[in-house]
Structures are given as C-alpha cells and as structure tokens.
Amino acid sequence: MRKNKKLKSIVYVNYSPYENSGKILDFLVENFEKVFLFSLGFHQLGKKKQYNRLLIYINGKLHEQKSLIQIPVQQKLIFLLLPLRSLITFVQILTYSFWLKNKYGKINFYFTVNAFTAWIGAIAKRIGIVNKTIFWVWDYYPSFHENKVIRFMRYIYWQFDKISSNSDHVIYVNQRLIDLRKDMGVLPKDARFPIIPIGTDSFDIKLKVKKDVVLGFIGVLKKSHGLDVIFNNADEIVKDFPKARFEVIGSGPDEEYFRRRAKNSSISTKFYGYLKGETFNDVLRRCSIGIALYIPDKSNVSHYGDPGKIKRYLSLGIPVILTNVLEFSKEVENARAGVIVDYNNSSAFINAVKRIMSSYLEYSENALKLSSKFYYKDIYPSMFEFDRNKPSKT
User: Fold this and answer.
1) pLDDT score of 57
2) pLDDT confidence of 367, banded at 50, 70, 90?
3) CA–CA separation, 369 and 354 (whole Å)
4) What's the mean pLDDT when you consider all of the chain?
C-alpha cells in the first residue's frame, strides 16, 4: 500500500459469515485508518448471533459498534421477504453512511462483493458520500432454479449485477466469471479485468503425519455444500478407519437436517456451530482432511465462486477432498494438495481418503505450498491502488 494509506477511509459491505473470508477484513483494518463495516445477515447462523451491524474500526481497533434493524426470518420465507429486507438494507446503508461522512469526513472508498450492495454504493457516490466504488465480484447466480421464487429473485439480482459492472473498479475472483459474462454478451469479448482471488493466511505450522482420519468442514451448512457424502459413506469410512470422525464448524439453513443425519450415522460427528476468532482454526488443526464436496448442479452458485473454505484448509496444511465444481479444483489436484472426486461415486471418495492418508506429509506440504501463492498481504494491495483516471475494464 502507498505511504498515505492511513489517510484513507473505506465503507465495506458484506454478508455474514463472509466478512473476513480470505482475511479481507483483516487486510482493510491493517491498511486503512478508518474502516466502516456493514455486516449483514442472510441465512440464520445461530439463535444468539446478532445480524446487521455497523462496526467502526479506527487505527486497527474496534472503536464503535451499532446494531441495525434486524428481521428474524424462517428459512422458507427468506426469498419471499427478500425485497423487504433489501429495502431495509438500502435505507440503513445510505443513512448510516451519510452519518459516517458527517462524523468522520468524506469517505474514500465504498467496497463490496455483492451486486445489490454495489448498486447501493453507486447511489452513495452519486449523492457525494464516497469518492470511489470498488466491486470485487465473488459470485454469479444462475437464472435457472426449480423454485420459481428463487429463480425470479436471481433474475432481479442479475439486473443489479449488470449495473454494478460500471463501478469505478471491478475485480473478479476468477476467469470463469469474466468468460461467463462475455459469453452472455454483457461484457465485450476484448474486455480485460484484474483477477484477484480470495487470499490465504500464513501460519507457523510444523507439519506432521496425521494417522487418524478426521474430516473437517467449515462454512454455511447447506445441502449444496455436499455434507451428505460423508453420511452416505459413513459405514465404509468407519470400516476402513474405525477411529474416523467428522468435525463440522458453522451453521446455516440445513443444520437441523444434518444433525438428524449425524444421529443415525456410524461416523462420530461433532457440530461446533458458528465459531468466532481463531477458535475455528484450533478445531481445524485437529483435522486431517478438509471437505469441499459441492454438488455438481447447474443451479449451484458455488460453480462460479472462489471458496474461502478451501483456502483456509490449505493455509493450515490440510489436504482437501473436493468435487470438480470450482475453477480452483483443478489447481488443487494438479498441485497434489487434494483429490477431486465424483460426487455420486462412493468408492471414489473412499479411495481419495486412502490416497491422502497413505501419503499424508506430501499432500500436507503441497497444501501449504499452494497456499503461499495466494497470501492475502501479497495479492490484495492492488485492489486499492488502481489508476483513478482509467477504467479498470480497459
């Protein structure tokens, strides 16, 4: 970052629990004098968790925290009530951003990873609250879905996505997201955009062979994230590895479903719920294999993303078993930091566990080596040092 970095202020908007995916919040707090984080709720992640908060960081420390309007919503009503919740989000971000400007002065950047909140940023710039807007594109939501309500909401989101592509600075987490928009005619074929993937952390780790199979998962508990594979293959896993267990960190819309499956499963499973701070790293360090078994369904949004969970596993030297849904999957397998499996092939999953455990130290070393390529302090600075006089799309 430039020498005058500490003179800058930034509004950062993201949905919980992704605010610090890839250490992005840590990076902002380390490099900006003032960080104004709007942390928003979407899925229910625990009864006691406070959603919709404004956190104000000054010189690297949490200075103030404000609770925003929050509407607890049952999972089945999330998309039906999305317009109302979005309206509340719109009003709150603009209202509090205006208050922040009056209290702390004009804000240099408005930064977000969501198309709808990026559109709010464009409004904030137009009325003079912020100087520049940055849209770090994490997702694409396919318009097709069996649920008509979700399909319609995704169509609406796509309209915001097209508008938000005109932010002052647009960055993508992978080439797949750019190619998709070119194929759809949204972007010119010769358009060029910077690619900055989700970053990794760096830990002082002494690698060692882990003899017990401890499968680990961190993330939002949704069926599309593939936890069913573990329970579907539990008997076979325990047959080959009698001490095998499954550690699950996180909460989400399908948590109760997976808890019921775990009760009737032969593999010992512990649900930790939503963990804060470094606590989840302490749990993951006990795991020998990370799980990222996204379902290969055309409507699965993970197909276009860059998974923070995989970067977290790699940062801790944990090999990964994953499906070939992500663009990043091939890079993991080519680096021998993990194994790609067919979601519907039980024997492929069991063989992947055996392959990793039989050469554990090699896979673990490769995981750390791959992780080092994406260290967040190395890859994030350019996100905020673009040429203000030139559009990022050229």
Assistant:
1) 97
2) very high
3) 22
4) 88
**Structural domain range at position 27:** 3-199+376-384
- On whether the CB atoms of residues 22 and 136 are closer than 8 A, the answer is no
Q: Are residues 173 and 67 in the same domain?
A: yes
The span from the CA of 77 to the CA of 171, in Å, is 32
CA-based max dimension of the chain: 64
Q: Are 223 and 280 found together in one domain?
A: yes
Identify whether residues 266 and 134 lie together within a single domain.
no
Q: Tell me the sheet residues that pair with 216.
A: 247, 290
**Predicted confidence (pLDDT) at residue 97 exceeds the cutoff of 60:** yes
How far apart, in whole angstroms, are the C-alpha atoms of residue 112 and residue 124?
A: 13
Q: What angle do CA 364, 367, 373 make, to 5 degrees?
A: 150
N-terminal to C-terminal alpha carbon distance within the chain? 23
The residue-averaged pLDDT of 131-146 equals 82
Report helix, strand or coil for 61. Answer: strand
Q: Does residue 167 contact residue 114 with C-beta atoms inside 8 Å?
A: no
128, with CB counted inside 10 A (0-12, 13-18, 19+), is: exposed
Task: For residues 274 and 186, state if they share a domain.
Answer: no
**Could you tell me how many residues make up the chain?**
394
Q: If residue 178 lies in a helix (H) or strand (E), which one and from where to where?
A: helix 175-183
Pseudo-torsion of CA 118, 123, 124, 130, nearest 10°? 80
> What are the pLDDT digits (tens) for 1-30?
554 446 599 999 999 888 999 999 999 999
The answer to whether the CB of 234 falls within 8 A of the CB of 267 is: yes
The pTM for the full model equals 0.86
Q: What's the rounded mean pLDDT across residues 163-192?
A: 87
| Better-predicted residue by pLDDT, 5 or 221 | 221
CA distance 359 to 251: 32
> If you ran DSSP here, which 8-state letter would residue 9 be given?
E
* pLDDT tens string 306-355: 888 999 999 999 999 999 999 899 999 999 999 999 998 989 999 999 99
156 with 236, same domain? no
Contact 131, 108 (CB under 8 A): yes
**Left (φ > 0), alpha (ψ -120 to 50) or beta: where does 95 sit?**
alpha
Whether residue 17 is preceded by a cis peptide bond, meaning omega within 30 degrees of 0, is yes
CA distances, 315 to each of 199, 251, 276, 330, 349 (Å) = 10, 22, 18, 18, 23
